[in-house]
Amino acid sequence: MSTLDRVSGIRASDAERDQVAQILQAAVAEGRLSPEEGGERLAAAATARLREELARLITDLPGGERRLREESPLGRAAPRLGLVFRVARFAVVAALLVMLWGLSGARFFWPIWPLAFMALGLIAHARRARWAPPLPWRGSWRVAPRR
Hints:
The chain has 7 helices and no strands. It is rod-shaped and about 75 Å long. It folds into 2 domains: about 5-70, no CATH class; about 75-130. With about 150 residues, the chain is mainly α.
């Protein structure tokens, strides 16, 4: 599913128009667009009513759609959202392991070992989510089947 499929019919804001204008101005400065074509696209961006119209103006530019997605609130929140799900999963597994330990009657707290390895993975993910650039948003929580 492309960004165009997800944004059709949604009105564009002034901030989104400004973002697209900055991307287009950078493309003209880099020589990716001629000044005439850049001017045409800037005029189209200024009069665009829908996000779909804005996305069409930058889809052929390298990283244009990705930059627009990264600068959006959802693009910035995606890594943190993944971290929230991992923390929730860690908490559920920790509760289950501690419950099993309590029911088993063992004296040694054996859940410390699986929880320690899970905590290391959680810390690594948190560091990546904080320092790495956001991953492209796929538009769905479902994982696509491998072909």
